[in-house]
Structures are given as C-alpha cells and as structure tokens.
Write a structure and sequence with these properties.
Elements lengths: L1 E6 L5 H10 L3 E4 H9 L3 H11 L12 H8 L3 H25 L5 E4 L14 E6 L2 H10 L4 H8 L5 H7 L2 E4 L4 H15 L1
Parallel strand pairs: 1-3, 1-4, 2-3, 4-5
Helix pairs in contact: 2-5
Length: 191
C-alpha cells in the first residue's frame, strides 16, 4: 500500500510521515530527496548556475536553497522552470525506491501532490492540516519570515481544497499525542 501525504507548508507532513514510519511504513521524504540527491546532481547544479548565475552556490559549491527559493517564489515562470528541472529526477528516484519493495507499506511526502496531478500514484491520500494562523506560527518558529511564508503558501493549492480532495485528513493542531492517535487509528483501519 502506498499512502501519499500532502498538506500545506508548515502543517506537519514530515511529523505525520515519521509517525507512519514508526508503524512500519517505509518513508520517502521528497524534500530530502531534492536536497540530498537532486540538488547535488552535477546536471541540476549546472542548469541552476546557467539560469541564475554562480551566486546560487555556497562557498563550498553547493546549491544555496534559500537563494534559489527567493528567486523562484518571486516569479512563477522561474518556479515552473525549477519544477520542470527537478521533478523528473525526483520522480525517478521515488519510483525506483517503490519498485525495489513493491509489496511494502509506503508513505510518501508530496507537498505538491494535487498541484502536479500525482493522485494516481497512491492507494490513498492523507492531508495533514491545521488552521492558517497555526501554519504561519510554525513557520516563523522555524525561522521563516511571515512575508516569505505567505508568498510560498500562495503558490500552493489552498489547504481547504487539499482537504476536500484527500481520502483522509489528520488535524494537526493539538498535542503530538493527538496527532499520533490519529495516525494510529488510520493505520489500524487500513490494516
């Protein structure tokens, strides 16, 4: 079984996915794949430098994700270009992981699941949600300023629409134990 975990920026997708992992699901964190494998690919790095210039690299030659994010979230054409560059290798990595253990239980974190029409890849879609003000508070606690957070949220499908399109919703506004109880109940119902 493959579960797709989606939700808005700052709703707690990774926290929920780790709770599924605690219940014997194999986890694919697409943000981590982007960070660790896609943005370290020489082809992707070269394309980013060609597009944005060498200032998108750190002093150590790694992609400065913050500088790239500042560029792409301020310009939809640049954001779409970046998605076209990074999503094909990302999807190939995750398809390969799933192929190697087809019979397993999987949870895949996909922030843009609906935006990129990836519904058919999953047996069920789980949306992790909370109130918009809670999202902003969490993002600010992670050091993301409110203006950037709001800009980034505006590029995603509204959370209410993601809730509507999902098979299951986890409401992540209470304690960690409350979220865990919801995950446990869902895992038990799917067994």
């Amino acid at each position: 079984m493959i579960l797709g975990i989606t939700g808005g920026f700052g709703t707690g997708k990774s926290t929920a996915a780790r709770l599924f992992e605690d219940r014997a699901y194999r986890r694919i964190d697409t943000d981590q794949l982007i960070r660790d494998q896609v943005l370290t690919s020489p082809e992707v790095v070269a394309a980013l430098v060609a597009r944005f210039g060498p200032d998108v690299l750190t002093g150590h030659g790694k992609v400065n994700r913050r500088k790239v994010a500042d560029r792409v979230f301020a310009d939809d054409a640049e954001r779409l270009w970046l998605e076209d560059l990074t999503h094909p290798p990302l999807f190939a990595l995750w398809r390969e992981a799933l192929r190697l253990a087809e019979d397993g239980l999987w949870v895949v974190e996909v922030p843009l699941l609906f935006e990129k029409s990836l519904e058919k890849w999953f047996d069920f879609i789980v949306c992790v949600a909370c109130a918009p003000e809670q999202q902003l508070v969490r993002l600010e606690q992670c050091g993301i300023n409110r203006t950037f957070a709001e800009q980034r949220l505006s590029k995603q499908l509204p959370l209410a629409k993601k809730i509507e399109l999902s098979d299951f919703v986890l409401w992540n506004e209470g304690s960690p134990e409350f979220l865990k109880a919801q995950v446990d109940r869902l895992v038990d119902s799917l067994a």
